[in-house]
Design a protein that fits this description.
The complex is a heterodimer of chains A (about 270) and B (about 90). With about 270 residues, chain A is α/β, with parallel strands linked by helices. Chain A contains nine helices and eight strands. In chain A, strands 1-2-3-4-5-6-7-8 form an eight-stranded parallel beta sheet. In chain A, helix 2 (about 45-60) packs across helix 3 and helix 3 runs parallel beside helix 4 (about 115-130). The longest helix of chain A is centred in the N-terminal third of the chain and has 20 residues, at about 45-60. The two termini of chain A are about 15 Å apart. The chains are: A alpha/beta (about 270), B mainly alpha (about 90).
């Protein structure tokens, strides 16, 4: 079944993962900028990373027949240093016209600190000034509820943003309603140990419907599964979902959101 | 899906997780050491499992969450530990 992987950190994955994803039906993969697992020491490290996301990785994906798109930012885990963040954010505009860049992301919060919030506001301002789509990371575990509330409030307070051009990712049962009621899109991340299992993600579809929702693997250098989306499609089939209903969630919905950027073509 | 179909599909998986949970509680009880905020939060969340009301997954997540509203002064770590150490 064709699907779109709307959130994957392919720079952390091996080429076998591209083969598996393409074999499973993946048509496009979208890669937000994220934390490398260690702090970069300078803006130059981010410049090189942005080049990797916009030059090298699309070529690597193309070898396996996959379209590759990217999002740019300094991630929340490196946002405590606001001077570094300002310098990195200043680098981003020169990359926004590159053919695979869809918007600003994954911005957001990690520990819900004052500086993280300031850097989130800087990113929102950047996105608004350049009319970019926004992809938001919400914090992990015990910090998710508070962080999601702070993020939604921040985004709603900026009148320049259209909620339908923002997706808030990593929602769970205690945050999905807040996000959908704000008019923004919600992303469900399918992880083996945290965030959502396939069964729980489908439960949320049954409770909240399938409008303005996508599913992603967010596969990276940690415990994660690049085939989480097609495996969830299989789980939906086990639960007697029709092919059209599965296709809507794993292909049409991400295509609808991402298609708001004219550069997104599959 | 009917209740019968849900049970057919998920009962064995849930049964396995339930026994794992029971074994975890036994393991904690056998071990020596001081009280820990994570285990206290775990016990609070466990009560939601036995409740008759719906939305148990949401309520378990809420029981493990930071309920405060103000940003913290500064991030001193990057990691989350799964339970909120404060008191509401």
């Amino acid at each position: 079944m064709p699907y779109i992987e709307p959130h994957a950190h392919m720079v952390s994955r091996v080429t076998d993962d591209y083969v598996k994803m393409a074999t499973a039906g993946c048509r496009a993969v979208c890669e937000p900028a994220f934390w490398a697992g260690f702090d970069r020491s300078s803006p130059a490290g981010f410049y090189d990373y942005f080049c990797q996301l916009t030059e090298h990785e699309p070529k690597r994906a193309a070898k396996f027949g996959l379209a590759h798109f990217s999002w740019l930012c300094i991630n929340p885990k490196e946002s405590e240093d606001t001077k570094l963040a300002q310098e990195v954010i200043a680098l981003i505009p020169q990359f926004l016209s590159r053919p695979n860049v869809l918007g600003i992301g994954e911005i957001g919060l990690n520990k819900n600190s004052r500086n993280e919030l300031k850097v989130l506001e800087m990113h929102v301002d950047l996105a608004a000034k350049h009319n970019q789509l926004i992809l938001v990371h919400t914090p992990h575990l015990e910090d998710k509820l508070k962080g999601t509330r702070l993020i939604v409030d921040t985004l709603k307070n900026d009148r320049r943003l259209k909620p339908e051009r923002v997706i808030i990712d990593h929602v769970e049962e205690h945050t999905i309603k807040l996000v959908l009621e704000s008019g923004m899109w919600a992303g469900m991340t399918l992880y083996p140990e945290s965030k959502c299992t396939p069964a729980r993600a489908i439960d949320m579809l049954e409770v909240f419907g399938s409008e303005r929702i996508w599913m992603n693997s967010a596969c990276d250098w940690g415990v994660s599964d690049p085939l989480a989306v097609p495996k969830t499609a299989l789980e939906m089939r086990k639960r007697n979902y029709r092919d059209e209903a599965i296709h809507k969630v794993v292909y049409e919905n991400p295509a609808k959101f991402l298609g708001q950027c004219p550069k997104f073509k599959v | 899906m009917t209740r019968q179909q849900v049970l057919d599909l998920y009962f064995m998986d849930a049964r396995s997780k339930l026994i794992d949970l029971a074994a975890f509680l036994d393991r904690i009880q056998r071990a020596d050491g001081p009280d820990d905020f994570r285990f206290a939060a775990f016990h609070k969340a466990l009560k939601e499992l036995a409740a008759a009301s719906p939305n148990r997954a949401e309520k378990v997540l809420l029981a493990l969450s930071d309920p405060t509203a103000e940003p913290i002064p500064a991030a001193t770590t990057k990691a989350a530990c799964g339970a909120w150490p404060g008191t509401a």
